[in-house]
């Protein structure tokens, strides 16, 4: 049996030897080992839970006491938070103030696209994260560091955040399992805000089983997040070993009774053939396990891109107004007056993509354009959510690709932002609707790059999604 200290030291050594992945923005070996020794004490005194002493790395979007919290922005360079995000506390060391802490050891903070804006991790102010399967390709984004850390064996499991695909897409690009829960399942307190009505945290790991364990410990009702759901007290792993229908004892067909919907818009033009083939093969495998495949339609899929890229920047422009150089974060060295100080601090602190989104957001919210863009987008958002409900009248779970293609090469899409936005087509609509969705590895392309399939469930169906993924795995 290994101690938490030994396990933690092993991963710290892996991180040190794996610097070329640029997956970590901050490590603090001393603090990690201190937590590990506390965890060992809990274990030896019989006070441990299933995750006590297991190391975890957090996306740098979660503020963390003792580690720098920057959201991969120059704006927050060197920033030390005085408190832990709820996710960090829920997973961290238990104490009198934090009785439900799972006792996991923090390994450090993982690289990401600046303020979680991006799909390739190329927007990090601290450099990109190569894909461990092929270092010439991107790891995906925005949780590229969290994905690469697990794929390269630098961490056993990590946290991520998903506003429009940032858990699922990097998980797919790096051959991992990841789940974005229903909106409100995991507290957003201390998660540096991008687009608050879409932001949701979740786990990234090797298997559905790992994700279920982490999600169970991560989620809680939090009075400090007004959109936080009531605590369901659920064990998200409770169905993993069970058949879909209670009482089904046919071990060869555990998924009997499960209806899987294949939205025709998810298999239309623009989807790489290798990805389509791989997802279709997975559908056949699920069918062999007893599931029934049905055709469904999500007619507004195409519109999820313009809708998301109006609403997310609108919310971002408001959320990021707090970074003004006054209370915390970067402040320009020289300025004439207050407005010059704001202008220079923000010009120097924010990267190009972040500035682009702030400008788009300010534009669509301004008087005269609000009705034409923001309001219109909100209306279509409602229709997108209703379309999902119509589909769920015909099926229990929706299956499709996570992304139109596998990981692309560095620079391939970074010159044209619209090109990059189009890559999000299959992931955005679930955030707009607030539904849970997960990424499950389902094969490789001819160049040995991982392919992911996406499972989408109705509200609060996380445990069922994890069950389907586990039966497949
Ligand atoms: N790629 C999308 C964006 O750039 C989604 C990012 C995310 O989920 N945080 O906004």
TrEMBL record:
Enumerate the catalysed reactions.
L-glutamyl-tRNA(Gln) + L-glutamine + ATP + H2O = L-glutaminyl-tRNA(Gln) + L-glutamate + ADP + phosphate + H(+)
User: Could you tell me the EC number(s) of this protein?
Assistant: 6.3.5.7
Task: Give the residues annotated as active site.
Answer: 59 (charge relay system), 142 (charge relay system), 166 (acyl-ester intermediate)
Superkingdom = Bacteria
Q: Which PROSITE patterns match?
A: AMIDASES
Please name the Gene3D superfamilies in this protein's record.
Amidase signature (AS) domain
Q: Name one GO cellular component term.
A: glutamyl-tRNA(Gln) amidotransferase complex
Q: What does it do?
A: Allows the formation of correctly charged Gln-tRNA(Gln) through the transamidation of misacylated Glu-tRNA(Gln) in organisms which lack glutaminyl-tRNA synthetase. The reaction takes place in the presence of glutamine and ATP through an activated gamma-phospho-Glu-tRNA(Gln).
Q: What is this protein called?
A: Glutamyl-tRNA(Gln) amidotransferase subunit A
Lineage runs: Bacteria, Pseudomonadati, Pseudomonadota, Betaproteobacteria, Burkholderiales
């Amino acid at each position: 049996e290994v101690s938490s200290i030994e396990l933690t030291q092993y991963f710290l050594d892996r991180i040190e030897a794996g610097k070329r992945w640029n997956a970590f923005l901050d490590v603090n070996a001393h603090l990690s080992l201190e937590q590990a020794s506390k965890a060992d004490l809990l274990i030896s005194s019989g006070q441990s839970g299933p995750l006590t002493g297991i190391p975890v790395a957090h996306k740098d979007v979660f503020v963390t006491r003792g580690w720098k919290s920057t959201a991969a922005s120059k704006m927050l360079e060197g920033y030390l938070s005085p408190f832990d995000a709820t996710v960090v506390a829920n997973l961290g060391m238990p104490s009198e103030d934090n009785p439900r802490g799972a006792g996991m050891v923090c390994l450090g903070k993982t690289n990401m696209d600046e303020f979680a804006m991006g799909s390739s991790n190329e927007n990090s102010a601290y450099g990109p994260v190569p894909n461990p399967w092929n270092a010439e390709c991107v790891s995906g984004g925005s949780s590229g560091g969290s994905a690469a850390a697990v794929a390269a064996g630098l961490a056993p499991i990590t946290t991520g955040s998903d506003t429009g695909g940032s858990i699922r897409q990097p998980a797919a690009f790096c051959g991992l399992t990841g789940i974005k829960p229903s909106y409100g399942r995991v507290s957003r307190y201390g998660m540096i805000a991008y687009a608050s009505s879409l932001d949701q945290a979740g786990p990234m790991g090797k298997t559905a089983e790992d994700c279920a364990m982490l999600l169970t410990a991560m989620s809680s009702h939090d009075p400090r997040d007004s959109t936080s759901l009531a605590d369901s007290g659920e064990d998200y792993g409770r169905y993993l070993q069970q058949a879909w229908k209670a009482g089904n004892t046919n071990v060869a067909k555990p998924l009997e009774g499960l209806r899987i919907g294949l939205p025709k818009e998810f298999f239309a033009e623009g989807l790489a053939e290798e990805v389509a083939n791989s997802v279709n093969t997975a559908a056949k495998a699920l069918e062999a396990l007893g599931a029934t495949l049905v055709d469904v339609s999500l007619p507004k899929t195409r519109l999820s891109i313009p809708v998301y890229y109006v609403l997310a920047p609108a919310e971002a422009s408001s959320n990021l107004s707090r970074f003004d150089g006054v209370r915390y974060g970067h402040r320009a060295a020289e300025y004439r007056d207050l407005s010059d100080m704001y202008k220079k601090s923000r010009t120097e602190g924010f990267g190009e993509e972040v500035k682009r989104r702030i400008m788009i957001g300010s534009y669509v919210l301004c008087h005269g354009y609000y009705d034409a863009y923001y309001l219109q987008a909100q209306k279509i958002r409602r229709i997108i959510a209703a379309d999902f409900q119509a589909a769920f009248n015909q099926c229990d779970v929706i299956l499709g690709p996570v992304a139109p293609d596998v990981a692309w090469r560095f620079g391939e899409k970074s010159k044209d932002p619209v090109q990059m936005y189009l890559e999000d087509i299959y992931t955005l609509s679930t955030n707009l609707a607030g539904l849970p969705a997960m990424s499950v590895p389902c094969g490789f392309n001819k160049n040995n790059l991982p392919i992911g399939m996406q499972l989408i469930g109705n509200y609060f169906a996380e445990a069922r999604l994890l069950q389907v993924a586990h039966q497949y795995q």
